[in-house]
Design the sequence.
């Protein structure tokens, strides 16, 4: 009996550490969550502590040309870079390198670079946050990546060996990007849609111009608001709307806000219906496992919260010289009624200087139904005050 117990304990001591090791992350990396996008602190050959966006839509690692020149990274050849905008950017290939992200030394393959304002300018102005690179496929191909939005942590597991937490949804890799099959409920119809899972997109759901036109979605979606989507390749005119529901796998999302593009982006595949982004994903703990061709979603903070859009009518952007400006003011909106004009510079919200906050925080303050907001504006060299009474527009 004693010999049996010794053997049993030896087997347990061997089995449980191995099991624990299989379930433990190889690396745990903190991230910054801003405007529903994930930013990492990255170092590489010739540079340190630079902000990179984590983007499942990036087939290659992106660098700004300014960072490449400063770090002395080797470049070669020419490449055309396209995205959700209609433009095409001329860039260069960047030699493979090893990037350090927290405790991880990540070898990345050939990258691409272009001047910062050409490559990321529309995203800078739309989010109010600058960055110097993008990491995508190289990381997601090397690990099963768990994104814990609530804890602001990435947990990296060996490929195919992440804990099976949450609902599983099959994904397809097309051009190094993850796609899933979904269904949209719009105006009483169920429309199948192949959607790109895009951590680099801050909204909940965006549908591409070709798909929108094919299904006449602007007319079928009901009330809409004018909008602009901003990405690599420029800005695209769009309409914001609510659809009845989005479903993918066992996940059902009620009344999400969707951006309906009015033109097809130059880098968008014809068969792609659109993108699922951070405004939806941040409500879950998301595991992306390319090796297993699966993603898993476990409900997280705010999983059942409603989706909201701007309630002021001001389209705020980061101005070229810093600060925030009204790029447009919607007719009949709270801002229009309060006398806000296109081109006004925002100095303060409810007495708090805009210079001491973020564009993300200002936009959040303008999404509270029924609230009053006192804005201090700069117009043609003089200060103007406007009081807005916010209300839902969708």
Sequence:
């Amino acid at each position: 009996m004693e010999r049996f117990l010794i053997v049993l304990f030896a087997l347990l001591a061997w089995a449980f550490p191995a099991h624990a090791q299989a379930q433990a992350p190889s690396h745990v990396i903190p991230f910054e969550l801003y405007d529903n996008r994930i930013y990492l602190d990255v170092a590489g050959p010739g540079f340190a502590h630079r902000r990179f966006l984590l983007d499942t839509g990036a087939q290659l690692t992106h660098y700004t040309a300014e960072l490449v020149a400063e770090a002395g990274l080797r470049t070669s050849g020419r490449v055309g870079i396209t995205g959700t905008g209609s433009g095409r950017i001329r860039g260069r290939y960047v030699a493979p390198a090893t990037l350090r992200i927290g405790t991880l030394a990540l070898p990345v393959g050939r990258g691409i670079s272009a001047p910062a304002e050409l490559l990321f300018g529309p995203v800078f102005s739309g989010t109010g946050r600058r960055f110097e690179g993008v990491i995508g496929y190289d990381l997601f191909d090397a690990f099963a990546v768990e994104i814990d939005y609530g804890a602001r942590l990435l947990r990296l597991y060996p490929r195919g060996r992440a804990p099976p937490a949450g609902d599983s949804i099959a994904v397809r890799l097309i051009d190094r990007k993850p796609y899933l099959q979904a269904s949209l409920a719009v105006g009483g119809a169920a429309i199948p849609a192949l959607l790109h899972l895009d951590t680099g997109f801050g909204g909940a759901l965006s549908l591409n111009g070709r798909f929108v036109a094919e299904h006449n979605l602007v007319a079928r979606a009901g009330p809409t608001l004018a909008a602009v989507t901003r990405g690599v390749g420029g800005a695209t005119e769009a309409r914001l709307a609510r659809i009845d529901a989005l479903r993918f796998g066992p996940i059902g999302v009620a009344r999400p806000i969707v951006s309906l593009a009015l033109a097809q982006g130059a880098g968008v595949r014809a068969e792609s219906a659109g993108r699922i982004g951070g405004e939806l994903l941040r409500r879950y703990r998301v595991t992306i496992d390319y090796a297993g061709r699966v993603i898993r979603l476990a409900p997280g903070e705010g999983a059942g919260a409603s989706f909201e859009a701007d309630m002021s009518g001001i389209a705020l952007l980061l101005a070229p010289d810093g600060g925030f400006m009204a790029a447009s003011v919607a007719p009949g909106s709270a801002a229009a009624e309060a006398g806000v004009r296109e081109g006004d510079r925002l100095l303060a919200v409810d007495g708090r200087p805009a210079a001491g906050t973020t564009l993300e925080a200002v936009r959040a303050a303008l999404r509270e139904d029924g609230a009053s907001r006192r804005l201090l504006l700069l117009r043609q060299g003089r200060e103007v005050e406007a009081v807005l009474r916010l209300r839902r527009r969708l």
Notes: The longest strand covers residues 177-186. The radius of gyration is 23 Å.
